[in-house]
Design a protein that fits this description.
The structure holds 2 protein chains of 2 kinds. By secondary structure, chain A is of the alpha/beta class. Chain A is built from 10 helices and 14 strands. In chain A, the strands form 2 sheets. In chain A, strands 3-4-2-1-5-6-7 form a 7-stranded mixed beta sheet, with helices on both faces. In chain A, a hairpin with a 3-residue loop joins strand 8 and strand 9. The two termini of chain A are about 25 Å apart. By secondary structure, chain B is of the alpha+beta class. Chain B has 13 helices and 18 strands. In chain B, strands 7, 8, 9, 10, 11 and 12 form a 6-stranded antiparallel beta sheet that branches. Classes of the chains: A alpha/beta, B alpha+beta.
């Protein structure tokens, strides 16, 4: 089962023929992902590393029956690629690209509404269902199949959490990097809801950061809806204040978005918190034993 | 990216947003020249630094004669201006803005930011202008009125009416405020701003609606399509190391501790600072080498960390995804040799090509303390920094 991706996922890579696109597509294919095609405008018709290339996403979907896309397009053009995927009605779009202008993402967000597509990212490591399908840049070998769902805003910190689980021989159902950008396609709550419904997932790790209200919104949702245990860490307790965001960013919510405040609300909502990022594995094994 | 008030106001003029007449000056003599051209009896001399709170710090003064303009400009230029945003060392003032005075009737607040909870741009206004808006938002959130703007419709007259009437305006000032809001939104979108803040926005006794102050920040990710904004960058306002780091694709923020950190990924970099603190240590910096780092960028990262003389130990914490551990290991070895590293070095590698990376480190002949997991790495780095004193 797992969520979002599995053995039946048919992947195309947008920006396949670029250096990063090629490297990570091959890594994903080596892991077992069914890569059915790629898109690079102007290179349609060639076969790259055994993968057929198309000029447009529309064409790629029509010819291959792809149901997922991974985007490796440079930031100035990445939003356009996402919109092209939405237009092609690809159910799942995973955008790895970092550095997309915020105003471009606001337009993408509007285009997603009412569409047939879900976007994960941008600026994310991707999604992996261990043993079945990997779409993204995460090192596959640190994962193992199992029952813990992982959701995170960060890339490498997710690997850290996964590594701690695998060290303890606790496998993962699916790991989802939702991305570190202020405007993204899918939020914590949407992924939590999928994990709640997924019979294979027994517990969830949620890794957040300072800034915004995504984690506290998720905490309140967990309290009201989640029956499975959730362990959470918030990065940035030691980060200097105001370095990442201008002060007007905090006004909009009128809410304290420091790590301390987020830990507090998470705890009040029944989430098991890990004060140290090194404790995530241990906390999960504790909640699984209960 | 941040710009000065005088630059923000130049941009606002281009978008027909009402601001007072004025100009920038680098010397007291230039300040007088600017003042002479303004048809006014009262001038305002304003220090141009990127931090807020300039008035309270003594960086904004009223002059009633040209002699006074010269005298005040002389006092402000070169002063070390301390505000709640500069830190205790303050910031040296190199430019002043000289503006005509005006008869203020009422002060308001107007700001545009991204509301990340809905993924839309929001315009906010408040009758509590001139105040610290964070305090207003915290104590009396009902006094902040917001309008979310859909990218498909853009700013419409309805948004303008909502905000204008909420401020209690009517007649001509209402009309002027609505067009002010609309033009500010246009500027925000066309120039890829991340913050546009007018505090205070004022109505005058003559019935004008204008921006008394103006703060604009721009989305760094969108600067590629705005060379005209990039050209406004004032490098004297930015940290030398942070700029240098940026050139190499490194994200560096200087902190006040003694453990230098080199990490890949912003989340893991933040978590590394957190765990150092939990182990009783103090980080000297935040440094994210990013996913595309090469041997050269790792060397650069080391040299930036070592420029900070407080550094007593360095912790390298890499979880290879895109980044391969062997590349990091080569960079670490080369940097340590080239820079004749004298502080203890703790290295924790995990992920892609980890075995190769560890081999390179152990065969280098360098004194490197290898660390197993995250907690081990933090404990060893904290101990090394204490022992190095």
């Amino acid at each position: 089962m797992a969520i979002l991706i599995d053995r039946n996922t048919r992947l195309i890579t947008i920006g396949l023929t670029g250096k990063q696109g090629t490297f990570h597509t091959l890594q994903s294919r080596d892991y077992g992902t069914n890569v059915v095609g790629g898109v690079t405008p102007g290179k349609g018709g060639i076969v790259h590393e055994g993968i057929p290339v198309f000029n447009t996403t529309y064409e790629a979907v029509k010819e291959t029956g792809a149901n997922a896309a991974m985007i490796f397009v440079p930031p100035p053009f990445a939003a356009d690629s996402i919109i092209e995927c939405i237009d092609s009605e690809i159910p799942l779009i995973i955008c790895i690209t970092e550095g997309i202008p915020v105003l471009d993402m606001i337009k993408v967000k509007a285009a997603l509404k009412g569409s047939n597509s879900r976007l994960i990212g941008p600026n994310c490591p991707g999604v992996i269902t261990p043993g079945e399908c990997k779409i993204g840049i995460m090192p596959g070998h640190i994962h193992m199949p199992g029952n813990v769902g992982v959701i995170s805003r960060s890339g490498t910190l997710t690997y850290e959490a996964v590594y701690q689980l695998t060290q303890r021989e606790i496998g993962q159902s699916t790991c989802v990097g939702i991305g570190g950008d202020p405007v993204n396609g899918t939020n914590f709550i949407e992924v939590l809801e999928m994990f709640e419904k997924d019979p294979e997932t027994k517990a969830v790790i949620m890794i957040g950061e300072i800034g915004g209200t995504a984690e506290t919104d998720a905490a309140r949702w967990i309290k009201a809806n989640m029956t499975k245990p959730v362990v959470s860490f918030i990065a940035g307790a030691a980060a200097p204040k105001g370095k990442r965001m201008g002060h007007a960013g905090a006004i909009i919510s009128g809410e304290d978005d420091s790590a301390e405040a987020k830990f507090k609300i998470l705890q009040e909502c029944g989430v098991t918190i890990a004060r140290s990022p090194a404790e995530l594995g241990q906390k999960i094994s504790e909640v699984l034993k209960k | 990216m941040n710009v000065h008030e005088y630059q923000a106001k130049d941009l606002m003029r281009q978008f027909n947003i009402a601001v007072l007449k004025g100009g920038v000056a680098n010397t007291p003599a230039e300040a007088v020249e600017v003042a002479k051209k303004l048809d006014t009896k009262v001038w305002v001399v304003k220090a141009q630094i990127h931090a807020g709170g300039r008035g309270k710090g003594g960086g904004v003064k009223l002059a009633r004669s040209l002699e006074e303009v010269e005298k005040l400009a002389g006092e402000i230029l070169g002063m070390q201006l301390v505000t709640h945003q500069t830190g205790p060392e303050g910031k040296k003032v190199l430019k002043v803005l000289v503006e005509q005075g005006c008869d203020i009737e009422h002060e308001y607040y107007c700001g545009i930011v991204l509301d990340r909870t809905v993924g839309k741009v929001a315009m906010m206004v408040s009758t509590e202008g001139g105040m610290d808006i964070e305090t207003v938002a915290h104590n009396t959130p009902e006094k902040i009125i917001k309008a979310h703007i859909d990218p498909a419709t853009g700013f419409t007259p309805a948004h303008g009416r909502k905000l204008g009437y909420a401020l209690g305006l009517k007649g001509d000032p209402l009309k002027k405020a609505i067009s002010f809001f609309e033009n500010l939104y246009k500027l925000y979108i066309e120039k890829d701003c991340s913050i546009a803040e007018i505090n205070p926005l004022v109505t005058t006794k003559q019935g004008d609606v204008l921006a008394l102050d103006g703060k604009l920040n721009f989305d760094d990710n969108a600067l590629f399509r705005h060379p005209e904004i990039e050209a406004m960058r004032d490098i004297t306002e930015e940290s030398e190391q942070e700029l240098e780091a940026g050139k190499f694709g490194l994200s560096y923020i200087s902190l006040d501790g003694n453990i230098g950190c080199l990490v890949n990924g912003a989340g893991l970099a933040m978590a590394t600072l957190d765990i150092l603190k939990l182990h009783g240590g103090t980080p000297a910096n935040f440094l994210d080498v990013g996913g595309g780092a090469t041997k050269e960028t790792v060397q650069k990262a080391f040299s930036i960390i070592l420029e900070d003389k407080n550094v007593k130990a360095i912790l390298v914490n890499i979880f290879g995804g895109i980044m391969k551990c062997d590349i990091i290991a080569h960079g670490v070895v080369d940097a340590a040799k080239e820079l004749e590293l004298s502080v203890p070095l703790v290295v924790r590698l995990e992920g892609t090509n980890v075995a190769l990376g560890k081999k390179i480190l152990s065969e280098s002949g360098l004194k490197i303390t290898p660390a197993g997991d995250l907690a081990d790495a933090a404990a060893k780095a904290v101990a090394a920094a204490k022992g190095g004193k």
